[in-house]
Amino acid sequence: MTITPITVLQESDLRDKKVLIRVDFNVQVYEGRILDDLRIRKTLETIVYVRGKGAKVILVSHNESKDGTGLLPVCEYINEMYKNECGQVTFISDFMAESTKETIASMNSGDVILFENLRVLPGEKANDVEFSKYLASLADLYVNDAFAVSHRKHASVVGVPALFPGKKYAGIQLMKEVDALKKALKPSHPFIFILGGAKFETKLPLIQKFSETADMIFLGGALLNDVLKAKGFDVGMSLVSAGEFDLSGVISNPKVLIPTDVVVERGGQAVIVPVNEVLTNDAIMDVGPSFTSMLKQHAESSQFILWNGPMGNYEKGYKDQTIGMAKVVFESKAQALLGGGDTTAAIKELGYEEKESEHVFISTGGGAMLEFLQYETLPGILALE
Ligand code: 3PG
User: Fold this and answer.
1) Which residue's CA is the nearest one to ligand 1's atom 2?
2) How far is the CA of 151 from the centre of ligand 1 (A)?
């Protein structure tokens, strides 16, 4: 089964049609400011496409911003930054209100509206049929351009498309993500897999899967602490997984590489120490610089690099090696696919977002990227078939 890109539709199919586009505007908002607009920018192509063909656009998304401001700041941001692409976007805070139907009925060709965070209503996460029917009743066609949330069996991701037989499409960004990720499933060699972050339970199956195809696996983040512990190193006060995992296959795998030095927090200071000299009161916060050098040495001759998750505790400011490695990947000639919130934050800090090119693809997905790599599809993609 295949998914149909929205670009198969032409003006005759789209003019004056109401198109419900599931986007992922789950972007970080702090005090009303958008901290990273990668996901917004990457959706513009689809919005421009359907508007350009005369459709009326209804955007729906979730937003889990810690300050709870929802999507109004996102709407204001789009109106300030992307007026050319989206026109003046109308924000609808109570999208279940009777007046919403009137607003939609009065839309003109090319108009765009954005609903408030779908997750304010329980029907979204519960994939409630009545909620899905309501959303579906507002539009003529459905588009999923929200790769990053396509691992969720939520109403707007799987429930709504089920109600649009023959009228559901993949957005331009969704198609690009799927095409890029498929390359990681049949990579050119030498192939380097870099995996960081935490949550061993979700990442262990990936290490196992890519042990078959990758030529080298660079492990960092809190995952590394578990591996070091299983190898018998003292990891002091470092963050380790709560569960018990059988890591025998990982620690005996010669493809799995660990750093020879690490950055620890010792007495409130960041100190670089050999990996076998971590003290009982130290906490490992980042891989050491020699790991970045090791990556550089291998990246130069590799053909494909796949990376998800930071090398250090990014939230606490231990960013150096994640940023250093991102630089190595961009400067290599390898085809590369990078994703995960903190990995893309490192790319932004380098000012390299604009450098995305034929050879580097930045995925908007975090969990969705990991699940796609593991299962080779996602519920939101299956729902489009
Ligand atoms: C993400 O940020 O990974 C996506 O927007 C999905 O968000 P969620 O994990 O809250 O479902």
Assistant:
1) 26
2) 9
CATH number among 3.40.50.12780, 1.20.1260.10, 3.40.50.1260, 3.40.140.10, domain 187-375: 3.40.50.1260
Give this prediction's pTM: 0.94
Residue nearest to atom 6 of ligand 1 (CA): 149
Q: What is the pLDDT of residues 311-365, one digit of tens each?
A: 999 989 999 999 999 999 999 999 999 998 888 888 888 888 878 887 999 999 9
Cis peptide before 190 (omega within 30 of 0): yes
Rounded CA-CA distance 283/267 in Å is: 10
Ligand 1 pocket at CB < 6 A: 24, 26, 64, 148-149, 152, 366-367
In the chain, the amino acid numbered 1 is M
Indicate where the chain has its CATH 3.40.50.1260 domain(s). Answer: 8-174, 187-375
User: Rounded to an integer, what distance in angstroms lies between the CA atom of residue 101 and that of residue 93?
Assistant: 13
Q: How close is the Cα of 93 to the center of ligand 1, in Å?
A: 21
DSSP string, 223-254: HHHHHHHHTT---BT----SS----HHHHT-T
Which residue minimizes the CA distance to atom 11 of ligand 1? 149
